[in-house]
Amino acid sequence: MRSIGKIIGYLMWIGAGILMFIFWFMAMSKWLGFLGGILAFIIAPGLVIFPVIFWIVEGVFPAFYFIIWGVGIVGLIIAGVSGGGE
């Protein structure tokens, strides 16, 4: 059972990271065009700074970003608890 929990936890964590990167890439491309797409690969978004900037620029609170961030943290906790005895 521990290996199943570990797999599910890692899938949640990695999946959340990929979704957050896609969110970051799309926002940068929308704001800066092609240059933003290139910069998205070079510049790290930060965990708190990017959502605040997104909120200011777009005028919409990025609830989806925080929900995905929370799912990633829960996945990391599940993976950590499942592999704790190793």
List the helices and strands and how they pair.
Elements: H1 2-32, H2 34-42, H3 49-58, H4 63-82
The oligomeric status of these chains comes to single chain
SSE class: mainly alpha
Low-confidence stretches: none
Shape: elongated
- Whole-number mean pLDDT: 88
Q: H/E series, N to C?
A: HHHH
The tally of beta strands, per DSSP, is 0
Ends distance: 14 Å
Give the biggest sheet.
Answer: none
Percent helix range: over 70%
Query: C-alpha Rg, in Å?
Result: 15 Å
- The tally of helices reads 4
Strand content: under 5%
Could you characterize what this model shows?
The protein is mainly α and 86 residues long. It is 81% helix and 0% strand. It is built from four helices and no strands. The chain has helices spanning 2-32, 34-42, 49-58, 63-82. α1 runs antiparallel to α2. The longest helix is centred in the first third of the chain and has 31 residues, at 2-32. It starts with a helix and ends with a helix.
